[in-house]
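haha ok so turns out i had the wrong file open the whole time. this is the CORRECT one, sorry everyone. sequence first:
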Amino acid sequence: MQTRKLNEEEFKATMTHKMHNVTESATDVLDVWPYVDSVPSTDLEGHSICDRFVEVVYRNDDYRFDHVLVMTRTKNVYLAVVVDLAHDSIYGHRVLDLKREYGLS
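then structure:
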């Protein structure tokens, strides 16, 4: 399966000012696991996926993209899989380190 590592600009372009937690309410969810399994280990920046566990799913304000946060074995570090809702496909991925990005401990 073809994967696409998003740079910071590409990733942030899929976000809106307010991101909505749709973890409990999302329907017709795309199966991200074949994609996650295909992500090269080098793209994970030394982190490893934690037992196929999705921590949370955020949807942007215009209902175009979902950010599926796949848990890694490192606290506050996720593989963010970006789903393009309009095309029912995966747009790409990025390692999201909340400590680095937002100063979380």
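The longest helix spans residues 33-38.
again sry for the mixup
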